[in-house]
Amino acid sequence: xxxxKKIELKxxxxxxxxxxxxxxxxxxxxxKLYEGYVKxxxxxxxxxxxxxxxLANQVYxxxxxxxxxxxxxxxxxxxxxxxxxxxxxxxxxxMGSVAEIIDETFGSYDNWVIDLKATAMAARGWAWLAYDRDxxxxxxxxxxxxxxxxxxxxxxxxALDTYEHAYWADYGTNRAAYIDAFLHNLDWETVEKQVALIxx
Length: 200
Known about the structure:
By secondary structure, this protein is mainly α. Helices cover 48% and strands 11% of the residues. It has a three-stranded antiparallel sheet.
């Protein structure tokens, strides 16, 4: 099963509750979903301690069901922690190494925004800016679910939740307006710290 330990809820900065364009109500309800993922990771890892691996089967078995849903729950925790960590900022254009990465990879900040928006509009669940450590490239990746299309050995530094719960109360079907609000509230200093953790 591995050495999973009980995980705890992460505390996010207070500024996520006073954002322009993403309401406090939306954030509070969204955080409840994140809390649910944390609870499920802990619940599933406890159940895995008692599962009978001798009954494993790829069509259906308890261990298959638990491990598939564990990947979904872990994705829900990690995606949302990155998402809420880098919200509550003042947006605008990035500075420093993030600006250099975006300019070198996409040609300009505006080009990056165009590509990120298109990626997010096409996504059913998530869009990420991530660095592929093997191929040494940056890319805006698409995701449909918490555990679909992760790129092995790629590290995300921006996570954009495109599930309807992230914006429906504020924008209805207007996902594009929500993406603009997301960018308006990005905390680039937090993104810069994520980038600094990536050792080339």
